[in-house]
Amino acid sequence: MEPVSSLTSLDVERVREDFPILQREIRPGVPLVYLDSAATSQKPASVIESIDSYYARTNANIHRGIHTLAEEATAGYEAARAKVAKFIGISNARQVIFTRNATESINLVAQTWGRANLHSGDLVILTEMEHHSNLVPWQMLASEKGLRLEFIPVTDEGLLDLEVYQTLLAQGPRLVAFTHMSNVLGTITPAKEIIRLAHQSGALALVDGAQSVPHFPVNAADLDADFLAFSAHKMCGPTGIGVLFGKEALLEAMPPFLGGGDMIRKVFLRSFTPNELPHKFEAGTPAIAEAFGLGAAVDYLTSRGMEPIASYEHGLTEYALDRLEEVPGVHVYGPPAQNRGGVLSFTMDGIHPHDVSQVLDRYGVAIRAGHHCAMPLHEKLGLAATSRASLYLYNRTDEIDRLVEALYTVKKIFGS
Amino acid sequence: MDDFYRELIIEHYKNPSHKGELNPNDITFEDENPLCGDQIRIDLRVGADGKITEAVFSGHGCAISQASADLLLDEVVGKTLEEVKTIGKNEILNVLGIELGPVRLKCALLPLKVLKAGAYGLKQASDSLVEE
Asked: How many domains does chain B have?
């Protein structure tokens, strides 16, 4: 993604009014400073209300029901699919599968496309900065099938080493599966170029968009991604629903994932024929209320504008990098602001990330501590754990100031 | 200044009296908390009378897990392995003297889990060792 202008048309004060939880105090007089959106984002009132109103007014199972409620539920569920398709630049909503989350989306590809098409000795290229959700499904398949896994290394600047990628491509991979934005380093990867090179070498490309789709415009058609996986709950939507985009021809040729109701066209005692897309991959009663919520989340982000959101977050990220780096003993990992999104992982000399988080919580500042589901990357960085502050459209510079103030208090408590 | 990081905890974290390794030892056990990467190894030497004569820990982790290990090993020297097996989680929590949420509870109890797994001669530690 191109660097975005620091000019913004996002009115953060108005945005903050949309999120009821931001009114909350962590204890009397201590307002919430929520800097953990890479784990899950907060939800605007419109999303909460859409779920509430679904249950209060519409609740019915979808597809095949003839009564009014069932028809309204089905229409809302399918409308959400159409909204998601448009949001990621896809005209044909049959290519949008609802799953539980980005993790399940990737597992779906591994267990259906992967199991049917990959064979002993086949090469799958991943990167060293993957979330466990884009590592473990391939490790599981690799041990079952005897696949080879190779990894695009992370450079000292926190970028992918594309020269090594080229040498790996020469070995004829079948799939390149990579993150669009690191949930630890914040690195925004050159997805379009990675995909172009993958296709040139005859491989398919799967993009883990869990951190990118919520934060800047992602156009699956323009990227020419074969698969794109992301979760609703990181983009102002509810937990329990995620998305897999796949190119239609690939999805058509893939065997079904889970078996059960809704994914079938005909069932006999000893056999079945699968339903058409996208239902073929949606067995059982899906997360209907959550689909309503996801649709509302897409509406919300669209109303605020993904370009203004990206631009605003970029300015905030620059500010946060500057402020964190001025604290003695704090080390921020990852690339400079132009190559990164609003994820800031850091360590403090002599103080464990858990202890940092714990003290920050006293000041209402919510950040995350640990390996952020990326143990191999932490191993590469030589760290057991990091503290991570992550930003979204509702954060303000004064919240970064609160974080920095609290970090000085941490230093005082630990006398370092 | 902070009622969570009591002076006792900071003191044992910064200046532990039982930090180190014993080679050779009579009992050694190591485990980690996969959620946060905290890692604790405890080495024990046991005298001819069956009582623990030396107890040390090594590894890395947050102030809570490290202070908890140090405070625990204060209690352990002079006890038999049978006595160690009866140490309950409240004993260590009372010594720490702070309210812990479910996540930090795991930090505080990791050393006891490691110690008891070692005392029982287990291959793998289990959370059931520190539940009552």
From this structure: 1
pLDDT digits (tens, 9 = 90+) for A154-166: 999 999 999 999 9
Name the percent of chain A lying above pLDDT 90.
92
What is the domain-level CATH number for residue B115? 3.90.1010.10
Residue B54 to residue B52: CA distance in whole angstroms: 6
pLDDT at residue B102 is higher than 80: yes
CB contact under 8 A, A371 and B36: yes
Domain of residue B108, residue span: 7-124
Contacts of B4 in chain A (CB under 8 A): 358-359, 362
Amino acid (one-letter) located at A256: P
The candidate with the shortest Cα–Cα distance to A334, out of A171, A221, A181, is: A181
Residues of A belonging to the active site = 373
List the single residue in A359, A385, A413 with the smallest CB-CB distance to B36: A385
Nearest-CA distance from A104 to chain B in Å? 21
Residues 6+ apart with CB under 8 A from A126: A134, A135, A138, A149, A150, A151, A152, A176, A177, A178
> Is A26 part of any domain?
yes
Let me know whether A325 and A245 are in one domain.
Answer: no
A258: which 2 tokens?
Answer: 């889970």
Q: What is this model's ipTM?
A: 0.79
Decide if A78 is inside a domain: yes
Phi, psi (degrees; rounded to nearest 5) at A44: -75, 160
How is the beta sheet containing A123-127 ordered, strand by strand?
A96-99, A242-246, A227-231, A204-208, A175-179, A123-127, A148-152
pLDDT tens-digit readout, A180-215:
999 999 999 999 999 999 999 999 999 999 999 999
**Is A152 within 8 Å of A164 (Cβ atoms)?**
yes
Report pTM. Answer: 0.92
A369 and B36 in contact by Cβ < 8 A?
yes
Say which of B4, B37, B38 has its CB closest to residue A358: B4
Cβ contacts of residue B59 below 8 Å, gap of 6+?
B30, B32, B38, B39, B40, B41
Residue in chain A closest to B59 (alpha carbons) equals: A384
User: What tokens were used for A238?
Assistant: 């509810």
The count of structural domains within chain A is 2
Nearest CA in chain B to A360: B2
State pLDDT tens for residues B3-18. 778 889 999 999 999 9
Give every strand in the sheet of A386-390, ordered side by side. Answer: A330-332, A343-348, A386-390, A368-370
Residues in chain A within 8 Å Cβ distance of B38:
352, 354, 384
Task: List A residues 385-404 in contact with B (Cβ-Cβ < 8 A).
Answer: 385
CB contact under 8 A, A414 and B39: no
Residue B76 domain-assigned?
A: yes
On whether both A97 and A129 belong to a single domain, the answer is yes
Nearest to A371 among B4, B10, B37 (CB): B37
